[in-house]
Amino acid sequence: MSRTIIVSNRLPTKILRTENTLTFQPSEGGLATGLGSIYRQDGNVWVGWPGLFVESEEEEQHVRQELEADSMAPVFLTEAEIHDFYEGFSNSTLWPTFHYFTQFATYEQSHWEAYVAVNEKFCQAVLEMAGPDDTIWVHDYQLLLLPEMLRRARPDCTIGFFLHIPFPSHELIRVLPWRNELLQGMLGADLIGFHTYGYMRHFLSAVSQLLGLNSQNGQLQTPTRTVLVDAFPMGIDYDRYAQAAASEAALAHEAEYREALRTTRVILSIDRLDYTKGIAQRLRAFEVLLQRYPEWAERVSLIMVVVPSRDQVAQYASLKEEIDEIVGRINAQYRTIYWTPIHYFYRSFPLEELAALYRIAEVALVTPMRDGMNLVAKEFIASKADQRGVLILSERAGAARELSDALIINPTDTGQLAEAMHDALVMPEEEQMQRMAAMQALVQQYNVFSWTKLFMDRLSYAKIKQLTLATETLDTSTTTQLVTEYQAAERRLLLLDYDGTLAGFNTNPQRARPDEEMLLLLQRLAENPRNRVVVISGRDRTTLQNWLGHLPIDFIAEHGVWLRRAGEEWTLFQTLRNDWKTEIRPILELYVSRTAGSFIEDKEYSLVWHYRRADAELSAMRARELVSHLTFLASNTDLQVMEGNKVIEIKNAGINKGTAASRWVAEYEPDFIVAIGDDRTDEDTFGAMPPEAYTIKVGSAPRSLARFHVRGTTDVRQLLRKLL
Ligand SMILES: O=P(O)(O)OC[C@H]1O[C@H](O[C@H]2O[C@H](CO)[C@@H](O)[C@H](O)[C@H]2O)[C@H](O)[C@@H](O)[C@@H]1O
Ligand SMILES: O=c1ccn([C@@H]2O[C@H](COP(=O)(O)OP(=O)(O)O)[C@@H](O)[C@H]2O)c(=O)[nH]1
To answer: What are the protein's GO molecular function terms (predicted)?
Structure first.
């Protein structure tokens, strides 16, 4: 039976050692609490770290058995690994960078090496248990390399990846020395999910700017596969929190707290200790509230739960000291015999006590500087059976994209936050209920179960999409078949595109000169009297002549405008005009001046706007604009607009690589054809070939007319070598 293997750094159960006994208890943190409700279904299993350093093999065995009985498989980490991988790379490099706190980020090579090694450790653990039909669902920033590692070991397996923290602007990602490896690691997945569309947009932009990979509607083309990218705002187990809040135990705790607090009204804040959560700023805002509105003294208290977290990381330890200091100062200044302004707890609470806190609070303060989602906000909403209560929510929490009925604030604006607290305390009940009802409907419907289903459905869709889009890979057996047919044939035609096929791309096209090996390969292939080798390119004839003209090969240049048979003169495909250039060139010049890095190539019978060196997003936008502008001008003329790989070309209509290549097929009457190309313009060649021809697309091949695809220029070289 197929099942889902959830993989995250932390398991939903953590194990504590007190003297000689081990205690198993629920982990804190949104990932563990959120997914805690789903992993036990359908034979699923959760792979992760149990938070314990085992001291003997027997202990390891015992822990493994206990966890296995509850559908978990532990990955044990050593103290050194936790230091370098968890506290180091995960929480001192990635966490601050992804939350826009680069001033706290460190860049240690040894931490990176530990990160790679621990991701490999997780990879081994997953591979040991994953069957061919299992779905692997990798979670979060601690395991960014894992999808690609798994993909290398199991090319066909189904892998989903979800990032629980923000994905920041490309400007922050580019600071990381290991940025490309991290992005490549994520791209091993079939589906990559984020909490919000904003994070998804940043990711696609980073992938485009740093790896040069394009996407359309969240569909990303890597050299080998189509990867889907989408936004899935995570929900909570609504009923669990609603039921906990209605439980006898929660009511009893609430009664206790009420008795102790007497008539004091309650503002609540609950977070892990983290500088991203805006705890210090929130305390200052509470102080501003007491200064601006002295009438709240003795009438309102802040109950603040801070759950210990990552306290071995220096920034967390100093934040703890800062919070202690601010709480001490405010309490010392405002406290009376009858009233404590801030009730501060530095520990975690069991579910029923948390539920009682959610119940008793009239206002919840969720005011992070940055937060992937924030589940506390949603748990507060689920706990409010009587719909009274106000949520104050930071605009920089992922949850703010959904919970627009909260009072949305900028967490750095302490004045605004203090006013929001006042507004919340005086908000009429009717308005509270209206806002709360709307948020409850949303949080109840988009819960963690619907979130999981949506993700899993989309992951299946990603797999189907890959199958329908992909052309067949030119694997060992099809290559053997190709070579066998080639060897048996008498009249072979080899149509080879140049850029992206024979040669790799260079940001300066004039630098993509042929290397010695390519020249030798073409020479030797063309020397065989049974072969006709044609380089079929969009390049101008002068460049092709200079680079390859001494070889005994044929040429189709400028996408079919100029033709040359080996040893003969260049001829035009048909009579052409180029008087149109005077009108079109100024338009292209306008786009060059508006798009830094782009330039014009003036060929004999065409004009080309190149944008490979320009900013990816800006030039993609300009390219759309230019195509529609040129297409409008070209209508009712004999001109055509062609889109290639980061180029837009305008030229005489009716001529393309396909029409030119057909002339070779008709004249030469080959009994074997191989046509290789990487570009939109090579599709014309593929489309013009008879069905038995070996048409090969270089790179991933959504909607290609080619029968096969290979990954890149290295594979092309290998294939040509095999033909010799
Ligand atoms: O495992 P820890 O180092 O103790 O940290 C706890 C978790 O913190 C982060 O939670 C995130 O996930 C939540 C659910 O999606 C989300 O609401 C929150 O905004 C995130 O910060 C972290 O991403 C997890 O990996 C940690 O386990
Ligand atoms: O004493 C506590 C306080 C909080 N939490 C839980 O910790 C999670 C915090 O998740 P959130 O998404 O708000 O932030 P994260 O800590 O993951 O960054 C929530 O589910 C809380 O219920 C907990 O288990 N024990």
So the answer is: alpha,alpha-trehalose-phosphate synthase (UDP-forming) activity; trehalose-phosphatase activity
Would the CB of 234 count as within 6 Å of ligand 1? yes
DSSP codes joined into one string, 91-141: IIIIHHHHTT-GGG----HHHHHHHHHHHHHHHHHHHHH--TT-EEEEESG
Q: Work out whether strand 21-26 and strand 13-18 pair parallel, antiparallel, or are unpaired.
A: antiparallel
Mean pLDDT of successive 10-residue segments in the chain (724 residues)? Answer: 92 92 90 84 92 94 96 97 98 98 98 98 97 96 98 95 97 97 98 97 94 88 88 96 98 98 97 98 98 98 97 96 98 97 97 98 98 98 98 98 97 98 98 98 96 96 82 88 96 96 82 92 96 96 95 95 94 88 93 94 91 89 93 86 89 89 94 94 93 90 83 93 94
Q: Are 693 and 606 in contact (CB under 8 A)?
A: no
Residue 554 is given by DSSP the state E
Q: Residue 310: CB within 6 Å of ligand 1?
A: yes
Strands 562-564 and 554-557: antiparallel
Domains with residue ranges and CATH for the chain: 4-231 (3.40.50.2000), 238-445 (3.40.50.2000), 472-574+655-723 (3.40.50.1000), 581-652 (3.30.70.1020)
Catalytic residue among 190, 371, 497, 682: 497
User: From start to end of 235-294, where are the E strands?
Assistant: 265-272
Q: Which residue has the CA at smallest separation from atom 5 of ligand 1?
A: 29
Which pLDDT tens digit goes with each residue over 334-384?
Answer: 999 999 999 999 999 999 999 999 999 999 999 999 999 999 999 999 999
pTM above 0.90, yes or no: no
Active site residue 497: yes
Ligand 2 mean position, distance from CA 34 (Å): 9
CB of 165 closer than 6 angstroms to any ligand 2 atom: no
Centroid of ligand 2 to alpha carbon of 336 (angstroms): 31
Rounded distance, CA 531 to CA 376, Å?
Answer: 70
